């Protein structure tokens, strides 16, 4: 590993750990890697990447494992239930052990602060594979998918300048936060439709607004989901009950029902709009079967694009260290 390299490792803990220009470069690289799956092999050797899950997974485990293998590395699955990071030993101690052996760490866990501690003490790039707060790899995959279906990346400047992204449902979850930050970095207008009490964290809105002011984007948070969706180029939703919130599922279903993405709501978007869902999807809850299985949905492309986007992120982090 890069003990001899100068500069500190860079990590991808939240969407806005990349600048707008870097996000664009990562998306360009993702498109290149999609066209030629073996174009870059930064882990050839092989070097190991630890991949750890403290919450359920399907897409993220498969796509990161495949990504590291295709980048020439060895994807080392660490069983979160056995490792018990933060319980059996501190995050900081685990970080120092892993950092002596692997080239990067991919971690899905609950608290963003634990991920930050891992990045601070491991000395190697750490990638957020979903926390309670953000799902930035999904954010990149979704931007790539939107680009593919709405005319490609912008000729210059922010990746998707001028396009409009709507998200309806739980505005307080990881996907909502990632859409705000990733969309603003891409120069997109981002409109959320969410019930009162389930809006984004104020500090995330403030960060998205600061980014939007620089990229020429706009941020809107609406109580009426129709106000969020009208005219959108891409319409996204997500489960009403995120991993770890199972005990709240009864009360959440009542609150979120008016925010279901059905055909009537989708009809307010641009006629060519695409529908995104990070999956798993619950038909009849946050999205109707008619919409999820209908002609505007691009969710299978979106799931595939996890692979390409994550290959690009891992490559970017392997090749970019912070100046000392
Ligand atoms: N908000 C969801 C995303 C699942 C990929 C959750 O955290 O469970």
Topology (SSEs and partners):
Layout: H1 20-35, E1 48-53, H2 59-70, E2 74-79, H3 80-83, H4 91-99, E3 104-108, H5 112-122, E4 126-128, H6 136-149, E5 164-168, H7 174-185, E6 189-193, H8 202-215, E7 219-222, H9 225-229, E8 234-237, H10 249-256, H11 263-266, E9 274-277, H12 289-292, H13 299-319
Parallel strand pairs: 1-2, 1-3, 3-4, 5-6, 5-8, 6-7, 8-9
Helix pairs in contact: 1-13, 2-13, 4-5, 6-7, 6-13, 7-8
The structure holds norvaline.
Norvaline (NVA) binds at residues 130, 135, 173-175, 238-239, 242-243, 278.
EC number: 2.1.3.3
Pfam family, one: OTCace_N
Catalytic activity: carbamoyl phosphate + L-ornithine = L-citrulline + phosphate + H(+)
Give the tags.
four-stranded parallel beta sheet; 13 helices; 13% strand; single chain; 2 domains; Rossmann fold; 9 strands; alpha/beta; 324 residues; binds norvaline
CA gyration radius, whole angstroms: 19 Å
Please indicate the count of domains. Answer: 2
Strand order in the sheet with the most strands: 7-6-5-8-9
Structural class: alpha/beta
Total of DSSP H or I helical runs spanning 4+ residues: 13
CATH superfamily of the largest domain: Aspartate/ornithine carbamoyltransferase
In total, how many beta strands? 9
Q: How many angstroms does the end-to-end distance come to?
A: 18 Å
Strand residue content? 5-15%
Estimated helix fraction: 40-55%
List the helices and strands in order.
HEHEHHEHEHEHEHEHEHHEHH
Please write the CATH class name of the largest domain. Alpha Beta
Largest sheet geometry: 5 strands, parallel
């Amino acid at each position: 590993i890069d003990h001899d390299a100068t500069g500190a490792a860079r990590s991808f803990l939240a969407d806005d750990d990349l600048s707008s220009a870097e996000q664009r470069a990562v998306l360009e690289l993702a498109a290149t890697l999609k066209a030629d799956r073996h174009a870059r092999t930064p882990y050839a050797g092989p070097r190991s990447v630890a991949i750890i899950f403290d919450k359920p997974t399907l897409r993220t485990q498969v796509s990161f494992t495949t990504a590291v293998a295709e980048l020439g590395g060895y994807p080392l699955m660490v069983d979160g239930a056995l490792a018990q990071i933060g319980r059996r030993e501190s995050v900081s101690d685990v970080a120092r052990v892993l950092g002596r052996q692997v080239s990067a760490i991919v971690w899905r866990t609950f608290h963003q602060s634990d991920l930050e501690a891992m990045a601070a003490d491991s000395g190697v790039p750490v990638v957020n594979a979903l926390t309670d707060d953000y799902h930035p790899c999904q954010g990149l995959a979704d931007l790539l998918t939107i680009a593919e279906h709405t005319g490609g990346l912008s000729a210059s400047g922010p990746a998707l300048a001028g396009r409009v992204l709507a998200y309806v449902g739980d505005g307080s979850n990881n996907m909502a936060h990632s859409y705000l930050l990733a969309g603003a970095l891409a120069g997109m207008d981002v409109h959320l439709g969410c019930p009162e009490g389930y809006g984004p964290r104020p500090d995330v809105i403030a960060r998205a607004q600061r980014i939007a002011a620089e990229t020429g984007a706009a941020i809107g948070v609406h109580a009426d989901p129709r106000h969020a969706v009208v005219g959108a180029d891409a319409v996204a939703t997500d489960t009403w009950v995120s991993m770890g919130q199972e005990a709240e599922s009864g009360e959440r279903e009542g609150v979120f029902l008016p925010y279901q993405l059905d055909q009537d709501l989708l009809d307010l978007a641009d006629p060519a709009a695409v529908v995104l869902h990070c999956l798993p999807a619950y038909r009849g809850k946050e999205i109707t079967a008619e919409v999820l299985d209908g002609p505007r949905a691009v969710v299978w492309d979106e799931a595939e694009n996890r692979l390409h986007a994550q290959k690009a992120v891992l490559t970017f982090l392997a090749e970019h260290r912070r100046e000392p």
